[in-house]
Amino acid sequence: MKHYPLSKSKFLIIFFLLLLLSLPLFLFISHHAATSTTAATPPPSLPIPGLKIRPGYSSYDSYIHHQLNKTLNPKLRKIWATRDWDRKIRVFTEFFDHLKQKGLLSNSSKALCVGARMGQEVEALKRVGVSDSVGIDLVPSPPLVVRGDFHRQPFDDGSFDFEFSNVFDHALYPEKFVGEIERTLRAGGVCVLHVALATRSDKYSANDLMSVEPLKKLFKRSELVYVRTVDGFGLDTEVVFRKKRVTRAP
C-alpha cells in the first residue's frame, strides 16, 4: 500500500480542526482552576478605622480549623462543663437580670446566643425566665446549642427578639457577623455584645477592636442604646443596639 504525504494545506486544515476541538477542554480546565483558587482565598474585609483584622489565614477553612482547635480542646471542654459551668451561669444571670430591669429583655423574648460553646449563657437565660432560648456554635452542645456558623446563621429573617454574643473578636468578617445578627433580629429587637476595648483578646481572636465607633458603623440598621463597663470573663464593655423599626411613608 502506498502512503501519500499530506499537502501543506491539508496539514493546516487538520491542525486547526484539532485546535478548535481542544479549545472547549482548555477553557473548562482554565475556568475550573480559576474558580478553585478564588474559592480558597477569602474576600477582604471592609476596612474600618479602629477595627483591625488579624492576618494569617490562607482560606476560610484554615480560619475554621483554627477556631475548632479551641472549641474541640478536650481539656477546655471539661473545664467549661464542670469548674466554669456554675460560675459562668451565675455571672450571665446577673447580666440578663440587668437587661430585664432595663426593659431590653423579657420572658416572652425569643433569644439567640451567638458563639455559645457549651451553652452557659443559654442556660442563664432560661433560669431568668426566657425559656425560648438557644445558642449556635461550630460544635453543637445539645440541647442548649445547635450547630451554626455566625457568619451564616441557619435561621430565617426576623427570627429573634434578642441576640447576645461575647465572641465578636472571633469574627473574621465582622461586617458579616453583624449583618447576620441584624438579618435575624426582628424590627425593634435588641442585640447585646460583650467586647474587649481596654485589653487585647487571646490567640484565637480574628480581630482587634479599639473603640465602640466601628460597631456603630457596622450596625447599619440599628441604633446604639447604651455602652457600659462590665467584667465579663476578660471582656470589659457591654454594647447594646436596637434594630430600627421600618417606618412607612403615609
TrEMBL record:
Q: What is the lineage of its organism?
A: Eukaryota, Viridiplantae, Streptophyta, Embryophyta, Tracheophyta
Per its UniProt record, what InterPro entries does this chain match? Methyltransf_11, SAM-dependent_MTases_sf
Organism for this UniProt entry: Sesamum radiatum
Protein name in UniProt: Methyltransferase type 11 domain-containing protein
GO MF term set: S-adenosylmethionine-dependent methyltransferase activity
Q: Which domain of life is it from?
A: Eukaryota
Q: Which Pfam families match?
A: Methyltransf_11 (PF08241)
**What positions does the domain Methyltransferase type occupy?**
112-193
Gene Ontology terms: biological process = alkaloid metabolic process
